[in-house]
Automatic annotation (TrEMBL):
GO terms for biological process: methylation. This is Caffeoyl-CoA O-methyltransferase At4g26220 family. Methylates caffeoyl-CoA to feruloyl-CoA and 5-hydroxyferuloyl-CoA to sinapoyl-CoA. Plays a role in the synthesis of feruloylated polysaccharides. Involved in the reinforcement of the plant cell wall. Also involved in the responding to wounding or pathogen challenge by the increased formation of cell wall-bound ferulic acid polymers. Keywords: Methyltransferase, S-adenosyl-L-methionine, Transferase. Coiled coil: none annotated. Transmembrane segments: none annotated. Belongs to the class I-like SAM-binding methyltransferase superfamily. Cation-dependent O-methyltransferase family. GO terms for molecular function: O-methyltransferase activity; S-adenosylmethionine-dependent methyltransferase activity. PANTHER family: CAFFEOYL-COA O-METHYLTRANSFERASE 3-RELATED, O-METHYLTRANSFERASE-RELATED. Gene3D superfamilies: Vaccinia Virus protein VP39 (3.40.50.150).
C-alpha cells in the first residue's frame, strides 16, 4: 500500500489533486493514481496515463452526477466497480427488506435500551433467515442473543420441529428476547440458555450433540470468536453453516492506522527522500478480529464468504 493512501483510510474525502506531489485521491480508494503511474520525463507515457485517468474521472462523474454512490475500482480485479453504501443508498436497501411486524416491534422496544447498536440490522437478519431456509435447517445455535432480534428472525423461519439454542449471559436482555419469542409464538422452538457461551457450547458437546447442528451464528464477545468457532465447528454437521458477525468492525480491520506498533515510513517523492511518521492506534479488539479473519482465510476445514452487510458477516460452510 502506498503511503499516500494512509490518510484516507476508512473516511470519505472530497476530491483533491496535487499534480506535483503526483498523488490523486478521490474518496477512499475510488480513484487512486499511484506515484509510479505519473511520468514527468516520458511525455507519451504521460499522455496515455492522462487519457486513462480522464476515463476514470468520467466514470466517477457519471456515477456521482446522478447519485451519491461511491465507486471503488481496482485494476488488479479487472476494473470491477463496487458500490459503497452511502446513507441514502442504505435507506433504499432497508426499504427493500421485508421485516416481519414482530421484529419491527422488537427493534422499536430495543431502540431505547442500552446497547441497541449491537442488534443486527434488518437486512442482516433477513439474510440469516434466508440462509436457514436455504439449508432447510432444523437445529441452530446463536451465541450472543441480546434482546433477540437475530434469534427471533431465525426462529420465525424454523419448522415447527426446529430448535434454536440461544446463549446469552445478560438476564435482562434475555428476558426481553423471551417475551418476544412468546409474542411471536415461537417459544417452543427456542431453548434460551442464560450463562457464558463457552459453558453452553461445551455442555452441548459433552451432551453428545457434536455434528448435529445445521446452522450457527456468532455475535458475542469478539475476542472469543476463535474459541466459539472451534467449538461450533464440532457441533455443526458437514455442509452446515457458521456465520460470524462484525468481521469488518466499522472498517477498522482495514485501517492501517490500527496496528501494534508505531511506524515510520520512508518513501520517494519527486526524487527526494521523505520521512513520514504515522502514529498507530493500539486496538486489541480490532487486531483480534483481523487475526481471526486471517485464520479463517487459511482454514481449509471451511469454505468462506465475507459479505459486506451490516458490520460485515463471514459465512463459513463446514467441509
Ligand atoms: C452484539 S450483541 C448480540 C446482538 C444480537 N445478535 C441481536 O441481533 O440483537 C452481543 C451479546 O452477546 C452477549 N455476550 C457477550 N459475551 C458473552 C458471553 N461470553 N457469553 C454469552 N453471551 C455473551 C452480550 O451480553 C450481548 O447481549
Amino acid at each position: 500500500m502506498s503511503p499516500h493512501e494512509f490518510p484516507v483510510a476508512s473516511q470519505l474525502r472530497p476530491a483533491s489533486f496535487h499534480p506535483f506531489s503526483s498523488t490523486w485521491v478521490i474518496t477512499n480508494g475510488a480513484l487512486n493514481v499511484s506515484p509510479l503511474r505519473w511520468s514527468y520525463n516520458a511525455s507519451s507515457c504521460y499522455c496515455f496515463r492522462l487519457r486513462e485517468c480522464r476515463c476514470k474521472w468520467k466514470r466517477l462523474v457519471r456515477s456521482c452526477s446522478t447519485s451519491e454512490f461511491v465507486v471503488a475500482s481496482d485494476e488488479n480485479y479487472g476494473n470491477k466497480q463496487v458500490v459503497s453504501l452511502t446513507p441514502r443508498l442504505y435507506e433504499y436497501v432497508l426499504k427493500n427488506v421485508r421485516e416481519p411486524e414482530i421484529l419491527r416491534q422488537l427493534r422499536g422496544e430495543t431502540a431505547s435500551m442500552r446497547g441497541s447498536q449491537m442488534q443486527v440490522s434488518p437486512d442482516q437478519a433477513q439474510l440469516l433467515a434466508m440462509l436457514v431456509q436455504i439449508l432447510g435447517a432444523e437445529r441452530c445455535i446463536e451465541v450472543g442473543v441480546y434482546t433477540g432480534y437475530s434469534s427471533l428472525a431465525i426462529a420465525l423461519v424454523l419448522p415447527e420441529s426446529g430448535r434454536l439454542v440461544a446463549c446469552e449471559r445478560d438476564a435482562k436482555s434475555l428476558d426481553v428476547a423471551k417475551k418476544y419469542y412468546q409474542l411471536a409464538g415461537v417459544s417452543h422452538k427456542v431453548d434460551a440458555k442464560l450463562g457464558l457461551a463457552m459453558d453452553c457450547l461445551e455442555s452441548l458437546i459433552l451432551n453428545g450433540e457434536a455434528g448435529s447442528y445445521d446452522f450457527a451464528f456468532i455475535d458475542a464477545e469478539k475476542k472469543m470468536n476463535e474459541k466459539y468457532f472451534e467449538l461450533l465447528l464440532q457441533l455443526v454437521r458437514v455442509g452446515g453453516l457458521i456465520v460470524i458477525d462484525n468481521v469488518l468492525w466499522h472498517g477498522k480491520v482495514a485501517d492501517p492506522l490500527v496496528n501494534k506498533f508505531f511506524c515510520v515510513f520512508l518513501y520517494f517523492q519527486l526524487n527526494e527522500l521523505d520521512l513520514m511518521y504515522y502514529p498507530q492506534v493500539y486496538d486489541p479488539k480490532t487486531i483480534s478480529i483481523r487475526n481471526f479473519n486471517q485464520k479463517l482465510m487459511e482454514d481449509k476445514r471451511v469454505s468462506i464468504s465475507m459479505v459486506p452487510i451490516g458490520d460485515g458477516m463471514t459465512i463459513c460452510r463446514k467441509r
